[in-house]
Design goal:
By secondary structure, this protein is of the alpha/beta class. It is about 40% helix and about 15% strand.
Length: about 180
Amino acid sequence: MPESIPAPLIIDTLKDTFREARGTSTRELLGWILSVPDTLQKTVLAALDKERALRVVTCATEDEANAVAAGLWIGGEPCVLMIQHAGLYASVNTLRGVAMDGRVPIFYLIGLLSREKDRDLKDSRHSMVRFAEPLLDTFGVPHARLEGPDDVHRIPEYYRLSRERRGPASVLVGLETI
């Protein structure tokens, strides 16, 4: 397993995903990143400060981020939520109420802080890591793992899936970004 995922690779993939979603590459603002600060993806968040084509909104809670994502979707704006697994657990009622019952296509990049590189998620010593996929499975949320640079293709794939199904989809970020 690789040691990390380059932040510029994730950012470029998000830009391409939003260009495709908008059907244009000429717009100055391509999309929105809604974030509740995530330690695992901190280099992506730091690098986004320099990006003009992606606007970052730091939210106080994941519940707030879900509601903002719904408003952006209603307004025709593409966005992604960048949260940690703790935020997934904290916002499960909003995930259910807004994304699932409200049929709002929300795409999540969920950082798996404390993920051991030498163990499968189901074998993790950390319950927050171990139960993330089963929780998503319980709610029927499609998900994939981003565990190295070769997995970034899952970002546009699951972003599109959230739009096609009009509901949540997520990519679990299993490595620290650099």
